[in-house]
Specification:
Bound molecules: iron/sulfur cluster
CATH architecture: 2-Layer Sandwich
Helix content: 25-40%
Strand content: 15-25%
Number of strands: 4
Structural class: alpha+beta
Number of domains: 1
Number of helices: 4
CATH class: Alpha Beta
Low-confidence stretches: none
Shape: elongated
Distance between the termini: 27 Å
Strand order of the largest sheet: 1-4
Order of helices and strands: EHEHHEHE
Length: 94
């Protein structure tokens, strides 16, 4: 089976995680065939930038969120976007 991607048209996409919405479950990272995403602890600066509800959610989720670790490998397939129940990932054109 061949997967059609945006990169086949020379367009490059990048997944962007909304750290306020992300619950760190990692379903998106699990479905990504290219290992673009990883659940890992957020930095103190990222934590400080969150609103109160986001900080509370972060504490309940052990301080971990999905983050982009291999941006150049993204195929733009959108599987991660579809997999997220919190609508926390968007694909942007770069
Ligand atoms: S768009 Fe596809 S390749 Fe890119 S991060 Fe999401 S699942 Fe991975």
């Amino acid at each position: 089976m061949q997967m059609e991607t945006h990169s086949s048209t020379n367009e490059q996409y990048l997944p962007v995680t909304d750290l306020n919405k992300c619950e760190g479950k990692g379903v998106c990272a699990h479905v990504c065939l290219m290992n673009v995403l990883k659940v890992k602890p957020i930095s103190p600066e990222q934590y400080a930038s969150l609103p109160f509800c986001g900080k509370l959610k972060t504490v309940f989720n052990g301080g971990r969120k999905v983050q982009v670790v291999n941006p150049a490998k993204c195929l733009g397939c959108g599987l991660c976007v579809s997999a997220c129940s919190q609508q926390a990932i968007q694909l942007i054109k770069v």
